[in-house]
Every structure is written in structure tokens, then in C-alpha cells.
Specification:
By secondary structure, the protein is α/β, with parallel strands linked by helices. The protein has helices at residues 14-25, 37-49, 64-67, 95-123, 144-163, 182-195, 199-207, 219-229, and strands at residues 5-8, 29-34, 53-58, 77-80, 126-131, 169-176, 241-244. Strand 5 (126-131), helix 5 and strand 6 (169-176) form a beta-alpha-beta unit. InterPro entries: 3-OHbutyrate_DH (IPR011294), NAD(P)-bd_dom_sf (IPR036291), Sc_DH/Rdtase_CS (IPR020904), SDR (IPR050259), SDR_fam (IPR002347).
Length: 251
């Protein structure tokens, strides 16, 4: 296996932290980033304590000056994972919050990708893995900003795949259903309040009911798919949507 330097956004907790830990175990060096450096450093320290290689970096994907520091780093693999959620009817959705979600999960992805592509082209190698969502493919009520951003991510990936087809750079989007993270825990509470139902009913009737498999997606699954996409056997997989939905969209 060739070891790579990976930069993962939003890796101070949740999916990003899970992927960081597992890919570090596979021997890669991981740059753990988050909007605040302390949670990123906590994850990086945990990786180093377990014998892996990791560093931490404060990174705000919505700001050009924050992203500009990446020119000083070698990045073989970019994992665009940073995300957030806000659950509200559109009539009650603050437009600044709507814009912020799109800035983080769509414009921020473009900003990061734009920053790392020159170095990848110079070295003749690069892998970009976007963490999308089942909501890149389907919709749910009260999530207009999130669904719009995640749908846009799929289209963005296809365009960049065409623009990088002349070199050994790939870009793909992994689209999982619900992963049990602090973000999803907050969604459970938000959905319970918005729908006026108990949290247990949100899990069984809204989150897991559409999935024939009926289980949450694990960090191990997402890290394994990411590891495959950045490896040599996936060099001709680009612009693709990797759906990890327990059978949701086959119905």
C-alpha cells in the first residue's frame, strides 16, 4: 500500500473523526481539520497515541484566507466532510442560516478543491472524496438547504471529474443514509420537535424505516469505501455517486 497524506474537513467529531482514525490505522498521515483547532487536535492526539501519524489544523471552509494556508501543505487526498444541519420549514428558515449551510457544504467544497488541485496536478496524483448523503439523491421535509447543498455536490463532482480526466486525479461522492453521530443525534431532537413525535419514533419511522436493512451506517463502512477510492484499484472510478443506503433507493 502506498501511504498518502489526507486532509479531512470537519474531522473534530463524527464521520470525519471516524474516517481519520481508521485511515490512520491503515498507515496514512492524516491532517485533521475543524473550524476550531482544539477538537481537531484531540482527534490527532488520539491517533498519535494509538501509533498513527496525524496533525491538526484549524480550517474554516467558508473563508478564503483560512483555506489559503493549504498551499503550504502537501495533500494527496482531500476528504470534504464538513457539514451541519438545520431543520425548519422554508417559511421559518432564516435565510442567513440557509446560505451558511450551502457555504459550508457546497461552496466550501469548491473552495477546498480549488486550493488543492494545483498541487495534485503538479504531482500527477490526487484523490477527492466528498461525503454526500442520501439527501444528495432524495429529499426530506424541513431540510431544504441541506438537500440543495448535497444535491449540488453530486453535480459538482461530475464536472470536476471531467476537468481532471487528463491526469491521475479522481473525485467521487459517497452518499450514506444516517450515521449515528452528534449531528444525527441533534437531528433526532429537531425532527421530534418539528413533527411533534417522540425521538424513538423519529429513529424508527423517519430515519430507519425507508432502509430495508434498517440499521445505521458505520464509520468503518465509510472509511473502507474511502480507502478503496483512494487506492490503485479505483483509478478509473471518477465522478461517481457511491450510494450506501441499505436499499433505500432501490424501492
Amino acid at each position: 500500500m502506498t501511504t498518502r497524506t489526507l486532509l479531512i474537513t470537519g474531522a473534530g467529531s463524527g464521520i470525519g473523526a471516524g474516517i481519520a482514525r481508521l485511515l490512520a490505522e491503515a498507515g496514512h498521515h492524516v491532517i485533521v481539520t475543524d473550524i476550531a483547532v482544539d477538537p481537531a487536535e484531540a482527534v490527532a492526539a488520539e491517533i498519535r497515541a494509538a501509533g498513527g501519524s496525524a496533525s491538526a489544523l484549524a480550517l474554516d471552509v467558508t473563508r478564503d484566507d483560512s483555506v489559503a494556508v493549504l498551499k503550504d501543505h502537501r495533500i494527496d487526498v482531500l476528504v470534504n466532510n464538513a457539514g451541519l444541519q438545520h431543520v425548519s420549514r422554508l417559511e421559518d428558515f432564516p435565510i442567513d442560516k440557509w446560505n451558511f449551510l450551502v457555504q459550508v457544504m457546497l461552496t466550501g467544497v469548491a473552495r477546498l478543491t480549488q486550493a488543492v488541485l494545483p498541487g495534485m496536478r503538479e504531482r500527477g496524483f490526487g484523490r477527492i472524496v466528498n461525503i454526500g448523503s442520501i439527501h444528495s439523491l432524495v429529499a426530506s421535509k424541513y431540510k431544504s438547504a441541506y438537500v440543495a447543498a448535497k444535491h449540488g455536490l453530486v453535480g459538482f463532482s461530475k464536472v470536476i471529474a471531467l476537468e481532471t480526466a487528463d491526469t491521475d486525479i479522481t473525485i467521487n461522492t459517497i452518499c450514506p443514509t444516517y450515521v449515528k453521530t452528534p449531528l444525527v443525534d441533534r437531528q433526532i431532537a429537531d425532527q421530534a420537535r418539528t413533527h411533534g413525535i417522540p425521538e424513538a419514533q423519529v429513529i424508527s419511522e423517519i430515519m430507519l424505516k425507508p432502509m430495508p436493512k434498517g440499521v445505521f451506517i458505520s464509520f468503518e463502512e465509510l472509511a473502507g469505501i474511502t480507502g478503496f477510492l483512494i487506492g490503485p484499484h479505483a483509478r478509473n472510478i471518477t465522478g461517481q455517486t457511491i450510494t450506501v443506503d441499505g436499499g433505500w433507493t432501490i424501492q
